[in-house]
């Protein structure tokens, strides 16, 4: 089989893993917490928007602009087992865990 086709098939068969993540500024210690349906691909989306200057959270975008990309790290805080959950149940669990991590880390919620 063509290696490209094999990679494409593997990508399509990969199950998204929902979870909660943090974007941290190493210079200031400030943390920004978000939740996503697929933690494996979220960093690329966040970094892409920040590099373009179009990230929806103005506080994160401002910190990025002030301190530069090299000052930021992306970390997965938690993945959730969504087995048996309907989409609304998964969304509620993600929101609950995002809130938990915002409180635990004294972080800025990326939803707000």
UniProtKB/TrEMBL annotation:
InterPro entries linked to this entry: GIY-YIG_endonuc_sf
Gene3D superfamilies: GIY-YIG endonuclease
SUPFAM superfamilies, A to Z: GIY-YIG endonuclease (SSF82771)
Protein name: GIY-YIG nuclease family protein
């Amino acid at each position: 089989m063509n290696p490209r086709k094999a990679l494409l098939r593997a990508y399509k068969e990969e199950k998204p893993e929902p979870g909660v993540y943090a974007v941290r500024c190493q210079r200031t210690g400030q943390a920004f917490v978000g939740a996503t349906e697929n933690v494996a691909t979220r960093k690329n989306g966040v970094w892409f928007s920040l590099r373009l200057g179009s990230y929806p959270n103005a506080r994160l975008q401002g910190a990025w602009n002030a301190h530069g990309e090299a000052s930021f790290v992306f970390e997965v805080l938690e993945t959730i087992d969504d087995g048996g959950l309907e989409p609304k149940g998964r969304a509620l669990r993600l929101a609950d865990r995002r809130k938990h991590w915002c409180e635990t880390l004294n972080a800025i919620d990326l939803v707000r």
